[in-house]
Design a protein that fits this description.
The chain is mainly alpha-helical. It has a domain of 105 residues: Ribosomal Protein S7, CATH 1.10.455. Helices cover 57% and strands 10% of the residues. The protein has a two-stranded antiparallel sheet with strand order 1-2. A hairpin with a 2-residue loop joins strand 1 and strand 2. Helix 2 crosses helix 3 and helix 4 crosses helix 5. The longest helix is centred in the N-terminal third of the chain and has 19 residues. The two termini are 17 Å apart. 28% of the residues are buried.
Length: 155
């Protein structure tokens, strides 16, 4: 590392919930660069979630994020000509970004007409402990558990 690490720019909280995590999620969800369109799609998804579950959509989304957040992951490390998968703790900032990316990725792969429908279905599934994003977390934890024998090679 030659230069100082780049500073993190502060995020502006979203207008409806006044939460910086929502802004971060919307920024990850955005593809074309039109933030207002994505923000309205996200709010539509939360409305649909509240309609499905009869709970506050925002709270269900937060619960879904917590359910999908990984605690450990495996990292490849080359030792003596062999590559080992070494389990390691996930940094707090990376935990959040991984959970958001997984939630978005698996919602895009779902069936549905609009991104709001897909996202709503994935949020509801993740909040229940189901769905692709939750399965990804479980697989990540299972991989770390299977490679626990190599944990003494810490990265």
């Amino acid at each position: 590392m030659r230069k100082a690490q780049a500073k993190k720019l502060p995020l502006a909280p979203d207008p409806k919930f006044n939460d910086k995590q929502v802004t971060r999620f919307v920024n990850c969800l955005m593809w074309g660069g039109n933030k207002t369109v994505v923000l309205s799609a996200f709010y539509d998804a939360l409305d649909k979630v509240s309609k499905f579950t009869n709970e506050d959509g925002y709270e269900v989304w937060k619960r879904a994020l917590v359910n999908v957040t990984p605690a450990v992951e495996v990292r490849s490390r080359r030792i003596g000509g062999a590559t080992f998968q070494i389990p390691s703790e996930v940094r707090p900032d990376r935990k959040i970004s991984l959970s958001m990316k997984w939630l978005i990725r698996f919602s895009r792969e779902r069936n549905g007409k609009t991104i709001a429908d897909k996202l709503a279905n994935e949020i509801v599934a993740a909040a229940k402990g189901e769905g692709g994003a939750f399965k990804k977390k479980e697989d990540t934890h299972r991989m770390a558990e299977a490679n626990k024998a190599f944990s003494h090679f810490k990265v």
